[in-house]
Amino acid sequence: MRELLFILFIITSLTSFGQRNIQSLNSAWEFTSEVHPEQLVNIPHTWNAGDAFRDGKEYFRGKGVYKKTFFVSEEWKDNRVFLKFEGSNQITTLFVNDQRVGEHRGGYTGFVFDISEALKPGDENRIRIEVDNSHNPDIPPLDADFNFYGGIYRDLWLITTPKVHFELANEAAGNLLIRTPEVSEATGKLEIETKIVNSSTENKKTEVKIDIFDPDGKLLKSLQKNVHLKAGETKKVDFAHTLKDPELWSPSSPELYRAEASVSAEGMKNDIIDSKFGFRWFEADPEKGFFLNGKPLKLIGANRHQDFENLGNALPDKLHRRDYEMIREMGANFIRTAHYPQDPEVYRTCDELGLLVWSEIPVINDVTDSEAYYEVSLKMQREQILQFFNHPSVVMWGYMNEIFIRLVFNDKMTEEERKEKIQTSVELAEKLEKLTKDLDPHRLSVMALHENEIYNTSKIAELPDVIGWNLYMGWYGPGLENFGKFLDEQHERYPNRALFISEYGPGADVRNQTNDPKPWDYSEAYQLKLHRSYINQVLERDFVLGMAAWNFADFGSSFRQDAMPYINQKGLLNMDRTKKDIYYYYQARLLEEPVIYLAGKNFTERYPENGSEKLQFTVFSNAPEVILETNGQQYTSKVEEGIALFEIPLPEGIHRLTAKTGKQNYSREFEVKYRENLLSHLEKDDLLINVGTHVQYKDPVTKEVWISDREYREGSFGFVGGEIYQKSKDKFQGTASDIQGTENDPLFQTMREGIEAYKFDVKKGKYRVTLLFAEPEYSASEENIYNLSEVSEEKAAGIRSFDISINGETVRKDLNLARDYGRIRAAEISFIVRTDGGLEVDFANNLGKSLLSGIKLAKL
Ligand code: GCB
Ligand code: CA
Asked: Is the ipTM of this complex over 0.85?
């Protein structure tokens, strides 16, 4: 076993001596940490893929150590040797043969270490990499709504070069900077910058050559310079050229050129590097919106986090790529890499697919007033810009997100401290703005703000070229229509500001279904309602540059307690990248090719009251009119804003419905069961009710459907008395706490408080009645800071006691949920009862108000 841990990594001979050799160094690293036993792992690797979803905020943040021993051949003494990291979170320290080579701070940009001096050619060499993801007040992000997964989570490369080579230690940028300072339909001006290093002990006469290839791979132009380098010297070498009639890069034709740089010394080719690039120009007009290559282009797309179900942030390139392909297939033309620079594969993909990119560094929520914090922030921006400089997809560099949100929610700060914090933040923003423009005057600078006046009063919003607003009206704050009002008001007050909607969206859990959506019900229907309204409000306003949904996919956030704990569920897709219905809605709004989609992927069981009640079906399409066909009947409906609604009665049973337009069709099976008749179904089906809500819930494990609640009527079933429980006034229903002891949080989060009875007009027989409860009250001090509405008042400590009787017989006396089971914990009690007809479960309060989250009736 032991020798396995010291697998020799033998590099025999280099393919062609004297040229750059690039090979991945991902496999079989020996890994340990304070809490992890020694194990062999492969990079990309994170040690938080599991615990961030199990232990919440307690996920391990500390130091992990990666080790490997490998043999370096004798020939390497004539080379320079580098380790290139694409990303490692967040302080990375490299030791070669126990000699400390260097340290890198910041978890989201690449970096390179020159290990030549520490290596022993012709011998075994030990590499040790220490990675630390502890909270560090000097490194952004200090705090954010996502997980800071630790580890070497992007590819690691071993690179050797001859002694005369293109520089790569500096910024890890590849060091071939390609600028396109002036572009038009007629000409494309090119400026190319390289840096050559002579790390030999002799002076060198070199020839540096640039070959430019068109999008078809045809050589267009060769440029050449002779450069003399002294021993140990590094020199910048610039080239310029203007191309005629460039093929412009755009979403509809993402044309990519390529430049190849080579350096030869004494007639021998020493080093070659290359990069793709593109020609396009753009502007952000505060009145008319965004323009690409002189034509208006409304930017519509999403934000994207880099984590994935079961993998944390350690994704193979293929999964990064697939995400962006799905964004493009959705019809989007825009992506914000919120909240940090992403894998190099991401930018390559966006170039190829024609997606426009806002890329940003993770300066989020708060800043530290320290020189070190400033320094790391600026270095991050520098690395981001230089590393992704050549990508035509990138149009905006971002450097801050909601930087005052901590300040706004901190009631312990004095006025003086507030002023200082504002000043620190504004000063940092000024420095970041200046650096951004110095490095890249041809792109737009941008920052994202939350809905608060402080960004205006502090004047921080005056700094960047573009302002992104993260707006959550209809979710954290009331009223979908307030979104447009806010935009109009800002536009009127600041007519010279180019405005973008950098985030919007509600939480949506595919287990929650309804046709009657309300804020905070976490239903897919409410997600559709909000996105539809926001898209309309943006399209009505030319001055808005564009919009990016929050978020492309659900993502991990350890402090969150939504319908699913530790996950932010605002995704258009789930964390495993299965699509929510809303994804197809965007297709219907954005794609030009014909789209038809019968919604209700996760809403295939329907429970009407009776046979005459109409059932609602939703079809997404970009056709003017669509047909819904079932049981040989055809129904037609007009499409408005991508949606055709159908209301049709269907008999009990399983029905195949097909939505059609032109040659396109989309089918789905729906099962219809009458609620009135559910009692008569009891012989074979249990009756399950999600008490305290209009939402129907599906348990993904048992596949049981808990139907929405209803008031009792004679001959049927339902509740008597009480009210829908509301944790806070502005959330329509329930609590968003992580209910312990269950995976079915939404079922327990919603409940009826003060309920008097639950009645079923059943036949004579033996039954099992199962009651579901959870005490929702705890100390209100831990509120979600992203909720901009008022923090709820702490309710009277949640002490309650009630008696339960069934058909007049007391079955449980003095049930006190907090005492008997604990707070925020699922409790389930089943009673076996007999009746000669009818079942009535009564609740009698001793102290506080009774509660009920769910009820299940089974005939035995
Ligand atoms: C925001 C933040 C983002 C959060 C999002 C939310 O404004 O910028 O990081 O995840 O809201 O879901 O609350
Ligand atoms: Ca419930």
From this structure: yes
